[in-house]
């Protein structure tokens, strides 16, 4: 069976616009964006939208919004566990056949080390376990695919998620900087989502699986060398022990009031996405199946920084 209609939640967020653009470029998929009633987000007139309540306490109001939708893509924060479960319940009742949850991200939410280090990923795991518990339910016989993509390379390079501070021309290099890690630009993540939905619905490599995609593989030393060449400016390099860095930040993970310090979480995601995020040998790496090529790092850097 093939999927033709797709509902997208989170289309105006950090990743959602890239997924929306990719879905709209498909010749076989029709996308509908679910928009909260008070949302100020605007979309091109070509984009179908359906309204959903601002405050969701039960799945019932979401069922009508998901009628006639073959698939549901969630593109908001992976920490919104309760919200994700409500969407899953509504999808089952509406007969949705495939869900792509808000997994994505720099780290592997099925990896014991990442789960212990970054509490956010435990929330992603809870959603995936909920999907597993509800496989095959509803008239659509619900299935799911979680997509893990490594660091969002474009967003990370323009911020400091990769350890690089380009505005101040410096980089924090973990250990010797030779550890290989996987990363993907947001437009490539959007294309991967689109192609997951375009592949035959019963494809065993995707159905009820957590899969990996990578737009490139690099290390901090290689990336520093490329950035110095592209920008024409040397980078000040500070070598830091990843183990020491992690231990120091784990102690600061929670504020005195017991809430997570999101700046510390971001630092832990940064290091974990560099020292424990090489997807090359993962059995469910789906680049080839989805037709996602691994790009040259310099080519991608020049594209992001607008340098020829």
Automatic annotation (TrEMBL):
The residues covered by the NmrA-like domain are 5-245
One Pfam match, given by its short name, reads NmrA
Query: Matching CDD domains, A to Z?
Result: PCBER_SDR_a (cd05259)
Keyword tags? NADP, Oxidoreductase
Query: Out of the domains of life, which is the source?
Result: Eukaryota
Q: Is the keyword Isomerase in the record?
A: no
Q: What one GO molecular function would you report for this record?
A: oxidoreductase activity
Q: Which InterPro entries match?
A: NAD(P)-bd_dom_sf, NmrA-like, NmrA/Isoflavone_reductase-like, PCBER-like
SUPFAM superfamilies, sorted: NAD(P)-binding Rossmann-fold domains
Its name, as the record gives it, is NmrA-like domain-containing protein
Q: Which organism is it from?
A: Gomphillus americanus
| Highest classification ranks of the organism | Eukaryota, Fungi, Dikarya, Ascomycota, Pezizomycotina
């Amino acid at each position: 069976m093939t999927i033709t209609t797709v509902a997208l939640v989170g289309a105006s967020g950090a990743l959602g616009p890239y997924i929306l653009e990719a879905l709209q470029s498909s010749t076989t998929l029709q996308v509908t964006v679910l928009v909260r009633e008070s949302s100020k987000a605007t979309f091109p007139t070509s984009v179908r939208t359906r309204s959903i309540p601002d405050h969701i306490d039960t799945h019932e109001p979401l069922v009508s919004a998901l009628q006639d939708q073959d698939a549901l893509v969630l593109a908001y924060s992976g920490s919104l566990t309760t919200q994700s479960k409500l969407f899953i319940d509504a999808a089952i009742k509406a007969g949705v056949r495939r869900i792509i949850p808000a997994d994505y991200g720099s780290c592997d939410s099925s990896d014991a080390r990442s789960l212990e280090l970054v509490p956010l990923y435990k929330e992603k795991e809870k959603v995936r376990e909920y999907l597993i518990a509800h496989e095959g339910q509803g008239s659509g016989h619900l299935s799911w695919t979680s997509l893990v993509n490594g660091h969002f390379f474009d967003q990370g390079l323009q911020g400091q998620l990769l350890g690089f501070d380009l505005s101040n021309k410096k980089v924090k290099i973990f250990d010797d900087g030779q550890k290989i890690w996987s990363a993907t630009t947001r437009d490539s993540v959007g294309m991967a989502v689109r192609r997951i939905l375009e592949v035959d619905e019963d494809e065993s490599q995707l159905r009820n699986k957590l899969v990996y995609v990578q737009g490139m593989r690099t290390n901090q030393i290689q990336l520093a060398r490329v950035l110095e060449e592209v920008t024409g400016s040397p980078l000040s390099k500070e070598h830091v022990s990843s183990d020491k860095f992690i231990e120091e930040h784990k102690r600061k993970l929670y504020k005195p009031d017991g809430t997570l310090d999101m700046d510390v979480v971001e630092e832990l995601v940064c290091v974990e996405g560099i020292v424990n995020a090489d997807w090359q040998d993962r059995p469910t790496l789906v680049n080839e199946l989805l037709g996602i090529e691994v790009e040259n790092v310099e080519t991608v850097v020049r594209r992001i920084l607008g340098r020829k």
